[in-house]
Each structure stands twice: as structure tokens, then as C-alpha cells.
Specification:
Number of helices: 9
Largest sheet: 7 strands, parallel
Bound molecules: nicotinamide-adenine-dinucleotide, uridine-5'-diphosphate
CATH class of the largest domain: Alpha Beta
CATH architecture of the largest domain: 3-Layer(aba) Sandwich
């Protein structure tokens, strides 16, 4: 198959690209490298069937940049960390609006299947727990996270209108916190921060009292779920949570990273950012039923290669 991956130079997109080229597909990555890196694609770039294009999806790509036909379009282009979208809020809103429209137009043009990567952030600071797909969320529409939360909600709506009005075969993945090698070391997310701090023997910066929870999915489990959601027949218009239901507090995560690294680091508390969700855990029954998918990799197992990756980053500095 010929497959388009927008945002393919990012953390998740590069792992997805590795998987798809490894299966023998022709893959075209489109990325503007706002938060992604060429080095993420070092492994995949040895495959002759990978093409990497530098383009900003906010601008409609010329037809000859992305000529027909594509069989599949994965839409991942979007800054994803609070620091990333905090630095580029307007770009984040626009890539979810214009960028998603342009990716949808390509899928429509070619009769391709489309997968939108949405997020658990559409649930905001959830009032029900764990989060099921038919929960509408509790989102601050104009707070510091709103460029991302509302951008992704708009992108979901745009995708569903293409299903309803244009009969597009599109699916929506609501991805929960994902971690692993190639997570950008400076994107401010908790796993890279804690790993780098523990490895350097510095205090781990727990925001607030650390009682807030997240559920962390290893990136290999996640990309397997994305592929299953794309390739399972009969799922047009379905919205599916993809994440690991094991929920931990940030204090527990900090302690686990300290233990696994054998670090002498302590824990320090710094102010909690505004609108930081208090808890988050996916209900994955829909993914289990429709895709026969659930994560296989426990947090301790996934943190091993992740810590190794960040140790390699430190030696390069
Ligand atoms: P990332 O920042 O590493 O990757 C995003 C990629 O999109 C980057 O390579 C970036 O350069 C590219 N990009 C941004 N704006 C673009 C534009 N206008 N045109 C072309 N390319 C553009 O983030 P990630 O963690 O790999 O996330 C990938 C997708 O998954 C995102 O859509 C994100 O919202 C979603 N997601 C991620 C997580 C997570 O925990 N990592 C959780 C929920 C949802
Ligand atoms: N966090 C933390 N220390 C850090 C970075 C983040 O305690 O150095 C907390 C943050 O407040 C949030 C959780 O870890 O409660 C996850 O943050 P992250 O930015 O990784 O993802 P998101 O907030 O988007 O879930």
C-alpha cells in the first residue's frame, strides 16, 4: 500500500513509519519539523520505500507534491506536549483546522482510509473516571491548554463531517499519554523530565503534590493499536481510546524512575500548571472488543529502553 503519514518525523509518527516501511509499504512522511526531528527517521530512512517531505500542512499541499494514489492517510501532524503547543498555540490551532482539512482532502481525493490522532485531552479535566468514548469532556475553552484541547475537538468534528457528508472511511484514535524512545528530551513531558533528571542525579520536579494521575502506554503498544484501528474493516466513524489503563500518581512514577535508574536523586515540588488534569485513565473496552487490542508492555518494562534512550541523549550533550 501507499501510505501518507503527516507528522511522521515526530515521536509517535517515526515509530509508526518504522513499522509501516518494515512491512514493505511505500510511505510518504510530510512534516514541517516544528517539534519533530530528522534523526527520528534515521532507521527508516535506509528503506528505499520511504520518502520524507518538508511541508507545513497548514498550507494546502500542491497536487504534485503528494500525487495520487494513497491507500491510507494517518494524520499526526500537531505539537503534542504542553510545552510544544504552549510555544506554538496558533500553529497548533491551525494545524488541527487547516492541516486536518488538507489531510482529509487527500484521503477523499484518493478514496483512502483516514485515521485522525486525537487525544485524551478532549476529555479535559474529566468528571467521570475512567474515561469512556461517549463522555463529552470537561474542557476550559480558552485556557492555556485550549489551543490543543479545542484544536483536537475541532479536528474530530471536521473528520466526522467527512464521514457523514462525504462517506469517507475515517476513524479517530483518542491517544492517552504515550512514552518511549524518541520522546523529545526537551518537550517538558513528565517521562523525559524524570528520566533525564534521575540520570543526571538532579531532583525530580514533581508538579503540585504529585497526587495527579496519568496512564502511560509504551509507544510500541500504541502504534500496534493505531495500525489495527486503521486496518480493521467496518469501523468508519468509530472513535476509540488507545492507552494503557494502569494508572499511577506522579509521585509513584518519580519513585519508580529513581528505583529503575538506581539514582540518588531526591524529589522536589514545584507549582502545578494551570488546568493540569487531576486524573486520567482510559476505558479500553471498545478497543478490546473492536480491535482485540490491549497493551502488552508493563510500565517497568517500557521504562527500561526509555531510560536507555535518555542515557544515550545525555552522553551526546
Ligand atoms: P510530536 O510533536 O513528536 O510529533 C508531531 C509531529 O508533527 C512533529 O514531527 C512536528 O514537526 C509535526 N508537525 C507539527 N505541526 C506541523 C505542520 N503544521 N505541518 C507538518 N508537520 C507538523 O508529537 P507526538 O507525541 O509524536 O504526537 C503525534 C500525534 O499524536 C499528535 O497529533 C498528538 O496530538 C497525538 N497524541 C500524542 C500523545 C502522546 O502522549 N505523545 C497523546 C495524545 C495524542
Ligand atoms: N509533570 C510533573 N513534572 C514534570 C512534568 C510534568 O509532575 O517535570 C506532571 C504534569 O503536571 C502532569 C503529568 O506530569 O500532571 C503529565 O504531564 P505531561 O506534560 O507529561 O502530559 P499531560 O499533562 O499532557 O498529560
Amino acid at each position: 500500500m501507499r501510505i501518507l503519514v503527516t507528522g511522521g518525523a515526530g515521536f509517535i509518527g517515526s515509530h509508526l513509519t518504522d513499522r509501516l516501511v518494515g512491512q514493505g509499504h511505500d510511505v510518504v512522511v510530510v512534516d514541517n519539523f516544528l517539534t519533530g526531528r530528522y534523526t527520528n527517521l534515521t532507521q527508516a530512512s535506509t528503506h528505499p520505500n520511504l520518502q520524507i517531505l518538508h511541508h507545513d500542512m497548514i498550507e494546502r499541499p500542491a497536487r504534485d507534491l503528494l500525487p495520487s494514489p494513497f491507500d491510507r492517510v494517518y494524520n499526526l501532524a500537531c505539537p503534542a506536549s504542553p510545552r510544544g503547543y504552549g510555544a506554538y498555540p496558533i500553529e497548533t490551532l491551525l494545524v488541527n483546522a487547516n492541516g486536518t482539512l488538507h489531510a482529509l482532502e487527500i484521503a477523499q481525493r484518493d478514496g483512502a482510509r483516514f485515521l485522525q490522532t486525537s487525544t485524551s485531552e478532549v476529555y479535559g479535566d474529566p468528571t467521570i473516571h475512567p474515561q469512556v468514548e461517549d463522555y463529552w469532556g470537561n474542557v476550559n475553552p480558552n485556557g492555556p491548554r485550549s489551543c490543543y484541547d479545542e484544536g483536537k475537538r475541532f479536528a474530530e468534528s471536521l473528520t466526522m463531517e467527512h464521514v457523514r457528508r462525504h462517506d469517507l472511511d475515517a476513524r479517530i484514535a483518542r491517544i492517552f499519554n504515550t512514552y518511549g524512545p524518541r520522546n523529545h528530551p526537551r518537550d517538558g513531558r513528565v517521562v523525559p523530565n524524570f528520566c533525564l533528571q534521575a540520570l543526571a542525579g538532579e531532583p525530580l520536579t514533581v508538579y503540585g503534590d504529585g497526587s495527579q494521575t496519568r496512564s502511560f502506554c509504551y509507544v510500541d503498544d500504541l502504534v500496534r493499536g493505531l495500525e489495527l484501528l486503521m486496518e480493521t474493516d467496518g469501523l468508519a466513524g468509530e472513535v476509540v481510546n488507545l492507552g494503557n489503563p494502569l494508572e499511577v500518581t506522579m509521585i509513584e512514577l518519580a519513585q519508580q524512575v529513581i528505583d529503575l535508574t538506581g539514582s540518588t536523586s531526591t524529589i522536589c515540588h514545584v507549582p502545578l500548571p494551570k488546568d493540569d488534569p487531576t486524573r486520567r485513565r482510559p476505558d479500553i473496552r471498545k478497543a478490546q472488543t473492536l480491535l482485540n487490542w490491549e497493551p502488552d508492555i508493563p510500565l517497568a518494562s517500557g521504562l527500561g529502553p526509555t531510560i536507555e534512550y535518555f542515557a544515550g541523549v545525555l552522553t551526546l550533550q
